[in-house]
Amino acid sequence: MSLKKNYPDIEFILINSLKEGFKFISQKKVFALIGKLPSISYVISQNNLTNIKIAGTINNKFESKLIVNNENKILITILNKVINTLSDEEINNIKHKYYSVIYDTSIDYFRLFKIVFPILIILIIIVTSNRKLNNEIKKRKIIEEELHIVANIDSLTKIYNRRKIEKFYTNELLRVKRYERDLSIIFLDIDNFKLINDSFGHSAADEVLTKLAYVIKNNIRSSDYFGRWGGEEFIIILPETDKLKAHNLAYIIKEKINSTDFNIERSVTCSFGVSQYEETDSKDSLLTRADNAMYYVKNNGKNGVKVV
Predict the structure, then answer these.
(1) Which is the catalytic residue, given 11, 166, 207, 232?
(2) I want to staple 225 with a disulfide (CB 3.0 to 4.6 A). Which of 8, 178, 211, 237 is the partner?
(3) Is 102 within 8 Å of 43 (Cβ atoms)?
(4) Cβ(238)–Cβ(176) under 8 Å?
(5) Exposed e or buried b for every residue in 154-189, given b needs 16+ CB within 10 A?
(6) What are the counts of helices (DSSP H) followed by strands (DSSP E) for the chain?
(7) Which phi and psi (to 5°) does residue 154 adopt?
(8) 162-307: CATH homologous superfamily?
């Protein structure tokens, strides 16, 4: 059988008649029925099988032959010679003249729906899941940013808090010791801050702290580190800076503060202590020198800069 040879992966079942084949189809024992087009068309028409349609044809071609009895052997020879002279187009015209073929050219929307619908559901689930995942990632990023701010930024002044500025200070000390570069720090404290707080209230005092931080932040380099050390005390870490340059910067900041309007009926001033890292310094000794210099200014008239 040429079909079986051409399609070895398909299981073919031989039937005794077309009637048996149509029965197998109705019982869903077979997927399709293959037979000669005229015969199939005739059975469909004669038995009014409106629920069965011919879906298509295969490319295999079979020779057309005539069968006659022994008494007409000469006739069959003549007829076969005539058939052999006919073209394919002429043969098809003869066939179509004597039988009608019912082709199913319409789209089986139900079958298409059964295939497309599950795929559509899966795609919707994937898109929805991805959208939820992206939203969750965005929420986590926002939470991480908020936690980072809480952990490192002073909530009032929006500059580094003591925890973060101490970490920068430790890293800069390690770098200075390794590469033998300059490093200076500035301690500053608002003069008479308790009097400001008591006279004008906490809200006004908070505004002074906020505006002071803004003024200083806008008068230092991007490579400098500025943070709130505690209460009304601030620190500036100055990499690649000797004490002379640090003193000049402290003086500029002092003058900027003196000329700033803090929206209270009194002037706001600060005392500054400046110190430069020395080879014998420890983490605490450098801070202590700058702190002592600042308190020297506070105890000797305030609103000044002291370098040690």
Answers:
(1) 232
(2) 237
(3) no
(4) no
(5) beebebbbeebbbebbeebbeebeeeeeebbbbbbb
(6) 10, 5
(7) -70, 125
(8) Reverse transcriptase/Diguanylate cyclase domain (3.30.70.270)
DSSP tag of 12: P
Most confident of 19-33, 119-133, 182-196: 182-196
pLDDT in tens, 94-109: 666 555 544 555 566 7
Handedness of CA 260, 263, 269, 270 (dihedral sign): negative
Whether 12 contacts 6, CB under 8 Å = no
Q: How far apart are CA 131 and CA 84, in angstroms?
A: 69
Residues 286 and 275 sit within 8 Å (Cβ to Cβ): yes
Residue 245's CB is within 10 A of a number of other CB atoms, namely 15
232 flagged as catalytic: yes
String of b and e for 8-44 (b: at least 16 CB within 10 Å)? eeeeeeebeebeebbeeeeeeebeebeeeeeebbebb
Per DSSP, what are the bridge partners of residue 227?
Answer: 160, 235
Query: Model-level pTM greater than 0.85?
Result: no
Cα distance between residue 82 and residue 280, in whole Å: 121
d(CA 240, CA 252): 18
Task: Convert 75-101 to b/e letters by CB count within 10 Å (16 or more is b).
Answer: eeeeeeeeeeeeeeeeeeeeeeeeeee
C-alpha 283/C-alpha 291 separation (Å) is: 13
Question: Is a pLDDT exceeding 70 seen at residue 51?
Answer: no
**Token pair listed for 188:** 């500053």
**Angle, helix 37-46 to helix 18-26, in steps of 10 degrees:** 70
Strand partners, 273: 187, 306
Q: How many residues does the chain have?
A: 308
Q: How far apart are CA 72 and CA 67, in angstroms?
A: 10
Domain boundaries, the chain: 2-98, 108-152, 162-307
